[in-house]
Amino acid sequence: MEEQRPDDERDWPESEIVVPLSAVEHYSYCPRQCALIHIEQTYEENVFTVRGTLVHERVDSGSESVERGVRTLRSVPVWSATLGLRGKVDVVEFPGASPYPVEFKSGRRHGIHADLQLCAQAMCLEEMFGVPVPRGAIYYHATRTRHEVRLDDRLRQLTKATIDAVRTMLASQHVPPPVNDARCRNCSLHDVCLPEVVGEPARLRGLQGVLFQVWQPESADYPSGDRGGQACTSS
């Protein structure tokens, strides 16, 4: 079935903030990380982001292939005017009439954060192709395993709620405070976020007190009548 493409910007409501697909997973994992990336436009590399880049080298090629009767598209642009979403799917397979999205991750499975991104991709594909997308998969490069995800009503509702939360945050331009927990250890934005400092109010107040202390010169520092400069006298 032919996909539906928005021909121009009139297909998108002017007041609508279009949510990047990647922001769905970012927000689910850590709202502050999402804000730093998508509001502050902050991005830093670490070993994990580099691994992710290497894993995506082939899928980012945009190539197309057919193996064993399955057509495979890579780096596929997708969108949903209904949900206000836009982004790319790493791989879309066509084992039959329905597209089957596959998201590539360099690490191991941790929670359902990637499931939400996959579900958002599937809902975009449903709108574009006009057919149901009941399942998709996440390929974890660290374990060389493919985890199939059933895109049921519960996951769809949670995905829609996350999309709405991201849009609200982007509209407010508010950067949430850090949480300073186990998620922070391997985050590439750790040195920008400073969770150990900003996430501990008492410590932050102490540092602010030192950094912004008002300097008061002692009278012994200067001769009487002189506070750091000579008075201007007329001749």
What does this protein look like?
- The protein has 235 residues and is α/β, with parallel strands linked by helices.
- It has one domain (19-202): Lambda Exonuclease, Chain A (Alpha-Beta Complex), CATH 3.90.320.
- Helix content is 35%, strand content 19%.
- The chain contains eight helices and seven strands, in the order E-H-H-H-E-E-E-E-H-E-E-H-H-H-H.
- Strands 1, 2, 3, 4, 5, 6 and 7 form a seven-stranded mixed beta sheet that branches.
- Helix 4 crosses helix 5.
- The longest helix has 20 residues, at 153-172.
- The protein is elongated, with a radius of gyration of 25 Å.
The CATH first-level class comes to Alpha Beta
Our Rg estimate from Cα atoms comes to 25 Å
Judging by the overall fold, what is the CATH architecture?
Alpha-Beta Complex
Major β-sheet annotation:
7 strands, mixed
How many domains? The number is: 1
What shape does the CA trace take? elongated
Low-confidence residue ranges: 1-11, 227-235
User: What proportion of the residues form beta strands (DSSP E)?
Assistant: 15-25%
Q: Tally the helices: what do you get? A: 8
